[in-house]
Amino acid sequence: MPTKSVLELANWNEDQELTLLLSLLGKDVSHWQDKTAATQLREMDWVRFLRLTEHHRVVPTVYLQLKTLNHPFIPAELLRNLQAQYHRNTLRMLHLQAEAERLTRLLIAHGIRVLMLKGPALAQQLYGDVSLRTSKDIDLLIASDDMDEAEYWMKEAGYASKSGEVRVLGSWKWKDHHASYLHLQKRVEIELHWRLHPDGGGEPSFDELWNCRKMGKAAGASRQVPLESADNRTVMTSCMYTLGSEHQFLYLSAHGARHGWFRLRWLVDIDRLAVCAVDWEALLPMMRRYGGLPAGGQAWALAAALLGTPIPEPMRPVSATRQAHRLALSALAFMQASVPAPYPIAHGSGTGRLAPSEPLHSRALAEQAEAAPPNGGASVCGTCGEAAMLATSGVTSITEDASNDRSPMSTATSCAPITPAVASSQVMTRNTAAAHQPVSRTYLLSLKEPRHRLWYLISRLFPSMGDSAVFPLPRQLHFLYIPLRPFLWLKRRFSKH
Question: Does the predicted model carry a pTM greater than 0.90?
Fold first, then answer.
């Protein structure tokens, strides 16, 4: 089934801000040079475009592409805003990289094997530059048997557990997949993983991942980034261990699918991985072994449709299945439901047309509202472009610092179907993050092959770390969590509502 029909059915071509964003992410900007496209740029809602860029965590790529495009209809204030966020993100990523290296050296020195997931290491592996990707925290993967010792050294390094949840019996090793730690002084969050994914699905063992690890070079803390010239950098490198390319695709496709791909940044990662040195022939049996065919097919279908990603020959049958097409359409609905919508005109002529978006701030922008210039924060009267963008001048925070990549399906188990019409009608309120729509367990189960689906349902009967938070018990009584499991699950379920 042709991937182009994915976009046609979702009517994404009707959203000109999103169309421009996809063109920039896919590095296809030639369309915007002709006269017809120039008219579209003149009428573009640049404030909404900025919010889309922040929402999808793609500020670095978009800034560099717009700078290269250098079109006269692109507001200078937009470029200044993106440039400020780009600089800030670069410093943030270098800070995370330095801390990741410090912790990795600490754990390795005490005999704990460590692999870096996502973050600065992935940015260097896929983009060749840590400044070209955003990240809110550091993800480290270790063997589950090393968890107790690793946690001790994390505390010695100044980190405290965010949740305080107690690990119950032995089910945490395969039901849960990470624990979060926070360093208050450094304002750095660490996610210590002992599995790639939650819910005990199929995945390679840590030993297999370690044996296929890749030694990647990542920019060190001594990299110099002058704010007035961030494009000219002096880079010093050091070695870090990351997932091998084949395992990287398994991980990224499953991670994006589990979160409904509601951030385009995850799809851009797939696009960049498509041109890396990956043994696609060897990847195919791995996808079959670990149940990665549904998520992998969905990833390829979306990347080809939205970003024009070339699908490697061995992966084309995977992306052409009816299941991949159906899952791709589901993901498009999740993406649209989380996209910032244009704001209705507050005082207009009654034509019913949408005016340029009022420059409402995201959570991160709102936190720095006091630093905004005196002429900022008002409504936009009559035109978008420079006047609209002036309202956000001086605000340089990257949204990644203030919000997390919480999955739209992480807080609910069922909901009504999401359609493009419903998604486009949603309007965000002032100073709030995008309202990610919850999706059904049906979607999550559709990502699993039958054998993993059965194991997932059985695993619901076993205790998890969340049970200890709801009803703390002494360690010697943890066996009681098994008969108490249904009651604790119901308590959490009704507490959410």
Answer: no
